[in-house]
Write a structure and sequence with these properties.
The protein has 398 residues and is of the alpha+beta class. 26% of the residues lie in helices and 34% in strands. The protein has a six-stranded antiparallel barrel.
């Protein structure tokens, strides 16, 4: 009995000893890893990281934004274009009335035309290291003085080498002794709806502004945009484009130029338009040489006709014309002294083919004419009076 109690006592002592030992080990471990307990509190003034430490942290940061990479690739080649133009305003003939002469005096009425200095601003981008800059024709229209400012702050006097109002493209040349940074031109035929679109320029005088969006649609005709005097199929984007962005590049996610920002709609928010870069490639070098760009035309105003649209028109008792319920292009007006007028085309004719190519839209007809040459004879299949007539039209220069 006494032996059993002895062994029981020894077991209890061993358990208590083992527990105490484990507690001591845990306490020592905590003390060893806790700075507040392992070392005295430092009461000196904190010090800022040294330059080497900051540099090390900075160098380890890598941007993951494709926008940043794209802008860094072309940003130095995007320029601001400032123009000055002097306009002459003549005194209104209304003031020639003798009453106003007596009221204002002969000295006022004998004053000559008044001159006014107008200033404007846009964007552009360098396409050749020698100083060839692509921009919009309307940016440099009738400019007396063109000043080009690079991103690094350098300024140059620019010379307008060539401009084409129909495509709204222009080339400006600056002279410099050193090579300039250039953009990389992409392929606008590969652009798809939904692709990223990055607009770079100087909107509202705010230099080096970048906005991001997507390609909203392709082949938006200039007529739909509201500028029927142009011959363009625009890239539509929701990337913010404002006055001053005109002439600047529209980039894809790789930093390649896919378009030239050119237009906004006053009646819409968040919609902008860019000229496909492939259109500019076709004529940029010619403009740089000062070559005049000739555009063939027929001289008609037209409307895409569908069977549904024709039925709706024909059911209207107030309609002034009955149109065939077919697919084609309806001529709504023939301009006087135009190739169309000389060939005998008439208002109400419906074009269904050009040179045996079916025509289903006004845009398609315009593209065929534009891709021809001045003086080429085109054969139009026209629906008139219930039958098809073949009419030949010799294109003129627009």
């Amino acid at each position: 009995m006494r032996i059993e109690k002895f062994y029981l006592l020894v077991g209890q002592i061993c358990r208590y000893g083992l527990a105490s030992l484990l507690g001591a080990v845990l306490i020592l471990g905590i003390v060893g890893v806790s700075p507040s307990q392992a070392s005295p509190r430092n009461t000196s003034t904190p010090t800022l990281p040294q330059q080497s430490d900051v540099a090390q942290v900075t160098n380890t940061r890598h941007s993951t934004s494709f926008v940043t990479a794209a802008v860094n690739r072309v940003g130095a080649a995007v320029v601001r274009i400032d123009i000055e133009r002097t306009v002459t305003r003549r005194i209104d003939p209304f003031f020639d009335d003798p009453f106003f002469r007596r009221f204002f005096g002969d000295d006022y009425m004998q004053r000559g035309p008044q001159q006014e200095l107008l200033r404007g601003q846009g964007s552009g981008f360098i396409i050749d290291k020698s100083g060839i800059i692509l921009t919009n024709a309307h940016v440099v229209d009738q400019a007396d003085k063109v000043t080009v400012t690079l991103k690094d702050g350098r300024t140059f006097q620019g010379q307008v080498r060539g401009a084409d109002e129909i495509t709204d493209l222009a080339v400006v040349k600056i002279d410099t002794s050193s090579d300039l940074p250039v953009v990389t031109l992409g392929d606008s035929t590969q652009v798809q709806v939904g692709d990223w679109a990055i607009a770079v320029g100087n909107p509202l005088g705010l230099d080096n502004t970048v906005t991001l969006g997507i390609v909203s649609t392709l082949h938006r005709s200039s007529t739909e945009v509201g500028i029927p005097d142009k011959r363009l199929d625009f890239i539509q984007t929701d990337a913010a484009i404002n006055p001053g962005n005109s002439g600047g590049p529209l980039l894809n996610e790789d930093g390649e130029v896919i378009g030239i920002n050119t237009a906004i709609r006053a009646d819409a928010m968040g919609i902008g338009f860019a000229i496909p870069i492939d259109k500019a490639k076709d004529i940029a070098l010619a403009l740089a040489r000062g070559v005049h760009i000739a555009h063939p035309y027929l001289g008609i105003q037209m409307l895409t006709l569908t069977p549904e649209l024709a039925k709706e028109n024909n059911k209207d008792p107030n309609s002034m014309i009955t149109v065939p319920e077919i697919q084609g292009v309806l001529i709504v007006k023939v301009l006087p002294n135009s190739p169309a007028a000389a060939s005998g085309l008439k208002k109400g004719d419906t074009v269904v083919e050009i040179d045996n190519t079916p025509i289903t839209s006004a845009t398609a007809l315009q593209n065929i004419v534009e891709s021809s040459r001045v003086g080429k004879v085109l054969t139009l299949a026209v629906w008139r009076g219930g039958e098809i007539k073949q009419i030949q039209v010799k294109t003129g220069e627009m």
